[in-house]
Every structure is written in C-alpha cells, then in structure tokens.
Amino acid sequence: MKFLILFISLLLQQQLPWARRWGQGSLYDRWLALWQRWPGFERLGAPIRLILLVILPSILVALLFVWLESFAWGLPSAVAEVGLLLLVLSQANMGAGLKRYREHLTSGDIQGAFHCADEAVSVPGLALSSDPETLNAQVLHTVLYRWFEYFFLMVFWYMFADVGGVVLAWLTLHFVRAQEALGQQEGASEESPEQPEQPLEPKQQTEQEQQDAADDPSETVGSGNQYAGKKAQADRVSSWCLHWLEWAPARLLGLTYCLAGNMTMALPVWRQLLWKTAIDSQQVLVDVASAALSFSHEKRCWHSAAADCPAAAAELDEWQQLHLRSVSIWMVGIAVATIGGWLL
C-alpha cells in the first residue's frame, strides 16, 4: 500500500504543475509564527521547544491517521497520505531552477547563474558564494544534499515509520534550517557597518551619561549571554537529532550511488565512511557520489564556472542523472519489498 501511495504522489507531481509548488511555501513558518505569538515562547529551553514544534505534532498527526484508517476501509487515510507526500516531496522539485541555472551557465552569465541558484536551488541556512571558482561545486553539493533531505530522507522514514516518521523528519529538518537561517541573519547584522554617532550637545551628553549610569549593565550582559546560551543549546539539540535521523538514510543512499554509478570506485569510499558517525551526511554523499561518477581509478576533477562554463553545466546533468537512477533503484527496491511482504 505504501508503494502505491508513493507512486501516485510522484505521478501527480509530474503531471500536475500546481502539485510541484504546493509545499514550497511557508507552512513551517506559519506553524512557528503561531507559537511565537505566545510571549513566553522565547524563554523556553531548547528541548521544550523541540517537543512543542516537532515531537508533539508528529505524534498527533500519527494518531490522526490511525483514526482515519477506521473509516471506509482506510480510503480517507490513503488520500490524506497522498496529500501529505505531495506537500513534503514537492520541495525536492528543482527542475525549473536547475534549467535556468544551466542556461545562464552555458551562456557564460555567471552572475545570472548565481542568482538562479540562490533563489531556486540553495538550501535554507546554507548560503552560496558568487565566486566563479567555487560556485558550480557549491551548487552540485547543495543540489545533491537537497535531493537527499527533501526526497530520500522523507521516503526512508515514511517506509520505516509511516506517517509519524515522515512528519518527524520534515519538522526536524525545518526546525534546524530555521535555526541556521536565524544564525545567518544575526551574523549578517553583526557584520554590517555601524552608522557613525552624531556628537551630542553638552547638555544632552550629561543626560546620556546619567541615563547610562542609572542602567544596570550587568543585567543587559546577563540577558544577552542567557539568550546566546539558549540559542547555542537549541542548535546543538536540533542538529544532533537531525544528524541521527539522516545517518541511516545517507548511508543507504550512498550504497545506492554505488549501484547507480562506478561501483569499483564508489564502494571502497562508502565502506570507509560507513561507520564514521562524526562525519555529516552531506560530506558522505558528496564523497560517494563523486567517486560514483568517476570514469577511472583517478579522482574526478570538476570544472569551475570560471574555467569552462559549458563543461560545468554538463557536469550538473551527470549529477542529475545519478539522482534519477537512484530514485529508480529505490522505487524498485520498495516494490520488491512490498511484493515480498516486508513493507505493507
């Protein structure tokens, strides 16, 4: 049944243009804004915020779908699962953005290619650089990671933990990306040049000194340190949860890259990285995919936009074909597991 629901969801995404853009809005931002209206929300600890924003709604949604299965032979639940997968998996659709990026890159318009990548391809919280030497490599790595996070990660947890698993993975991912985006905004505001202060009149300066003396500086510093400590704690907790949610799917996808590409080169790299838990998922996937796309026993060198724009655009097609072959392998594997009775 899960294979059929997943297949229908992917088919609707390809046939219905509105379904491709359905989940690309600010649904999580609206969910977060509901909680931010509560004045005491910002004072909550990181574990409590994670429970309220991620774990609790995952449990409630899972219970809702269990309740729907008791009606009309489970048909309302199946239809709702198709809608949920359309919402979740639509964020992996980057076809239009990648096409514009390739067109700009092929024509040599590096600045236009950067703007297309920054708007349609980049992962929230992971900024791209406009440097022609590193732009294409960053886009390749970011696209690979986004395919993993918004497709393979969601499909993995849907198959092994049903609706509750995919909602938990989706909310955790957006929770972490929101924290990273907030950190980027704060870093950008700190790096912005400060406006020079206008000299004060003697009377105004005396009043300002009296006001500064009346304020308690230790209270201001203490509150700032308390906020920074809570934010750092939230980043550690959420990143730790996402790291372990991604660990098994990333290794499984790495093995898929071995099957879809040059296994002779990719399999040793995958075995070397398999049990290294400290390495993040993006690095594992990039290393294995690079080896899988190698033509010989030598390490593949990728073209930069500054050196050869058409060759750099062609390499993006190679990564996209590797992704499509991997999707096919996963779908065949899920179908076989469903026929064999291991997945229902």
From TrEMBL:
Region feature Disordered, mapped onto this chain: 184-227
Protein's UniProt name: Regulatory signaling modulator protein AmpE
Superkingdom of this protein's organism: Bacteria
Transmembrane segments: 45-66, 73-92, 150-173
Keywords: Membrane, Transmembrane, Transmembrane helix
Claim: Transferase is one of the keywords in the record: no
InterPro entries: AmpE, Beta-lactamase_Reg
